[in-house]
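**User:** Everyone, produce a chain:

**Assistant:**
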Amino acid sequence: MYTVVERELELGLVVSPERSIPVPAQLSYRTDDPYAVHIAFHIGSDSPVNWTFARELLVEGVFRPCGEGDVRVWPTKVHGRSLVCIALESPDGQALLEAPAAPVAAWLERTLRVVPPGSEQGLLGLDKGLNKLFAMASGDELRPGGPWPTEESPDAGA
């Protein structure tokens, strides 16, 4: 079982320096994917447009410019309003979105209370998964050289 922290809010899709179009969005954080945040943009199509990126990127982007490549985040003020800008880039195009900083920061704070920074790895279940993997591979120990080739073992097909 996992915990979900969600927040509905309206972002602005910037179409020019003077104009933006409102875009309903949902921020989502799940403890079964503790390093990531998910944003679903509801743009009037049959299904939302979904983006997933590092929670740490959004946390840092509330305070200072960060990111490179497909996702960049930075704080700004427009007409006295504190905003978080999110620039997204894909092979299909680019988008610049503005989110109100206070609700984004409040939502992030809730995610950080649920999973504090540095504790994410404990939720991944890697130890359990590795134990299962090693249990499944235990039969390989009976093979000479184990499951992996060694310098002494002949090449496959030789």
